[in-house]
Write a structure and sequence with these properties.
Blueprint lengths: L5 H5 L8 H18 L7 H28 L3 H9 L14 H13 L6 H26 L6 H9 L1 H6 L6 H21 L2 H17 L3 H6 L3 H7 L3 H26 L4 H14 L16 H17 L9 H23 L8 H21 L3 H7 L4 H11 L14
């Protein structure tokens, strides 16, 4: 394929008649965003790290991802197509309607960079980059300010994080929201400033703006700080009220979205949504229906393992399934080390326990969907993958080291 023809040949599924112009706009937008990194109010060292990570993400977005787009029909195409109709308006946003909201965001960009699928993808990739940096800043805050370039690049270039935070879709935006929330959660425990409570609320709002059920998933782990992280009785009461109000609001939004009022209706909705994902080449059926809370609890361990560590080698027979399975072998290896080196004292660390509860809560909920479709499971895992990586690296460290041993300089 000639150099000027490969975007056209590999982008034949994209609803765009002028693919060369589309691709050129994407390249220009990627370059413009790379310049913007040097305007960030951060250290020169961090600007260099971000620039290097951004160059790799651009290569993935405008290079490797073309192979992916050449083979699959993607939701991204409908976002791009639908953004061409209608006009951007703040009133067009609707809380919890991810597809609708992403289309409206695409219309917003079309006012400045019209009719470019690749430019939209680059914007999503940049949001993904910012999310990874925020996760890194949260980790550094936990490590009491100790910079670690290896940790940054592990988070930025871990295959599942690198690829899925670069796609045109909901996932980079959700990841960005969870990153803000995580920075707020770590910051609140470490510094007790009001700013971090604001970041918690903002992060939850952004994530739930796309997927409303993420709100209660993100709020629940904050309860750890009520029981373990706060010693001052007055602050504990105030934080308990804060978490309780967040949880009530989030559950109200969830109930409104799915029109559920009772526990049994939640069970029925879970089964309906779960079965709806048993489709496509990576779809698989679950034995037995979920009819009660007891059924949900029985299935939970299988679902949680699936959400976090599958597909295993040989379960999804394509290039992306193979890469995902190899990545999961690395995670399983770190999990084995974590179990071997685990000490009860680890559970006395409020931030670490919050992160563990976050991963477990998320995997409990998403296990019902992930088990039904291993292809989608790989993409969904992006939401907690940076947190999971940090938890496993921390728990698998050698005891004589004070920082992440596997990343020691």
């Amino acid at each position: 394929i000639a150099q000027t023809d490969f975007p056209v040949a590999l982008g034949h599924r994209i609803p765009q008649p002028d693919m060369v112009s589309d691709y050129f706009k994407g390249c220009l937008w990627a370059f413009s965003l790379s310049i913007s990194i040097f305007l960030f109010p951060i250290s020169a060292k961090h600007k260099f790290w971000l620039s290097l990570a951004w160059a790799i993400k651009v290569f993935i977005a405008l290079g490797f991802m073309l192979i992916y787009e050449n083979h699959y029909g993607l939701d991204a195409y409908s976002y791009f197509r639908n953004a061409k109709t209608g006009i951007f308006s703040l009133s067009n946003f609707s809380f919890g309607l991810g597809t609708h909201n992403l289309t409206n965001l695409a219309r917003f960009q079309n006012q400045f960079i019209p009719d470019s699928y690749h430019a939209l993808k680059i914007s999503c990739a940049f949001i993904g980059l910012l999310a990874i940096y925020l996760f890194y800043r949260a980790a550094v805050m936990y490590l009491e300010g100790r910079d670690n370039d290896k940790l940054f690049f592990v988070l930025a270039l871990f295959p599942g994080v690198l690829f899925w935070s670069t796609i045109l879709g909901k996932d980079p935006i959700v990841l960005f929201g969870i990153a803000i929330y995580s920075l707020g959660a770590v910051g609140w425990q470490k510094k007790r400033r009001l700013l971090y409570l604001v970041l918690i609320c903002l992060g939850i709002a952004i994530a739930a703006f796309i997927r409303v059920w993420l709100a209660p998933i993100l709020v629940a782990p904050l309860a750890v700080y009520v029981f373990l992280g706060i010693k001052n009785y007055a602050v504990k009461i105030l934080f308990l009220v804060f978490v309780a109000l967040l949880f009530l609001v989030s559950m109200d939004r969830f109930a409104e979205k799915f029109q559920v009022e009772t526990v049994q209706e939640v069970v029925q909705t879970t089964e309906k949504v779960s079965q709806g994902w048993a489709r496509g080449g990576s779809g698989q059926s679950r034995e037995g229906d979920i009819k009660s809370v007891g059924d949900m609890l029985k299935f939970a361990p299988i679902g949680m393992v699936t959400a976090l560590f599958r597909p295993f080698p040989g379960e999804v027979l394509n290039l992306f399934g193979l890469l995902a399975s190899l990545e999961n072998l690395v995670l399983l290896y770190l999990l084995a080390l974590s179990i071997k080196r685990f000490k009860k004292e680890d559970l006395k660390d409020p931030v670490l326990l919050w992160a563990i509860v976050l991963v477990l809560t998320w995997s409990f909920v998403y296990g019902f969907v992930s088990f039904q479709n291993l292809g989608s499971a790989v993409r969904f895992k992006l939401q907690v993958l940076p947190v999971l990586i940090c938890v496993l690296l921390l728990l698998s460290r050698k005891r004589e080291h004070r920082t992440l041993a596997v990343l020691k300089r």
